[in-house]
Amino acid sequence: MNEKTSISRREFVSTAAALTLPLLMSNTAGIAPAGTPLRHACIGVGGMGGYDLQNFKQHPDVKIVALCDTDAAVLKKASEQFPEARTYSDWRELFAKEKNNIDSVNVTVPDHNHFIIAINAIKLGKHVYCQKPMCHDVAEVRALTNAAVKKRVVTQLGTQHASGKGDRTAVQFIKQGVIGKIKNVYLCSNRSGIEGYRLEGPRPSVSTPVPDTLNWDIWTGTAPMRSYAPDIYHPAKWRTWQDFGTGWSGDIGCHIFDAVWKGMNLKAPLSVTAEVQPSWQSSAARRADTWPQGDHITWIFPGNEFTAGDTLQVEWFDGQYYPPAEVQALYKEKYPEECAMLVGTEGALLIPHTVMPVLLPQEKFSDHPLPQLDERNHYHHFVDACLKRVKNESHFAQTGPMTEAILLGTVAIREPGIVLEWDAKNMRFPNHANANQYLKRKYRKGWEVKGF
Questions:
Q1: pTM confidence score
Q2: Domain 3-162+377-395 top-level CATH class
């Protein structure tokens, strides 16, 4: 294994130790004095970035002081709402000029640039809200988690539904053992209407002039330079390309897995394997560039106090792959397109994405009480954590290891049909050297991260 891809024992132990500390562990960095607003910078203000911006805007104790986007047209539209906020096309310039004027940032850009922006913000002692899947590569996630713990900043992954009543109720049901010990877990995202985000490739062979409003060099960032092509990468279809995105499992997996991971107190998997659609696997051009339109990932986790056996099998299904018919049949109504299903020794728990969970069989649990939970905004909870008012829900010490497991699935996709044994301590696959190359990318020249 390449020496740069490995992680020191000291770094691993520091992260592992952090997982046993209270959630408030990361909430100790200095911020503006009490009674003054949280000074916030938004990096990425189009698409999901616009949604994030609006949520931060609505918190009464937040002041948006800086906006950044590589697309000048998108930036102009956002700046019209915040005429006093300073604007930047380059996040590096923002950090250089605003480091003494900001307390926190949100990173809402394509996956391949999450790490380089977030790690530099953390090095400056800034609190970070980062969209999922936190990073593009497993090694990036490990390093970012360690950095957040070391700097003791507040962090939050953009799994906004983790703060919702549905996911929090599911976590309580799991921890209370309502359905007994867990035997199997099935995760799926078979959302309809996303065909336009599942491009088949190969990438365009003809170069198109970059729009005057777009800074393509900064947008490309750490990834290999590619010729610009309209309606292929920017603004939304970058997820389908291995250079920039992490596929559908990387994008939605953090949402679907979150309550399961948190409720069951899962640790690093023992192994991971994947099957993918035959048409993608047989095409060298597609394998080199795009993620498949469908995949089925299987992790084997070590068992614990919540599992029925010494190990736990967790499966992910998307695209043309669906949970087994007998699993779907546990729910008598239409099976949700996006959900988690936990099968236990005393029943089952269906966690549809964004809504309340369902205990199964429903007639058995019809009178089971629901926990009394408060309404919660994920963004505002992050802000309140920065202001030292609450414990934050999805800090990196909690969500980093989960993201690592999910991204191991993206490695397995690139080596389909092979059971990859995972050595979490040394961050490597001891039985398959070739797969280790996918744990950490080589960054484009000039975009390296010092010390990584």
A1: 0.92
A2: alpha beta
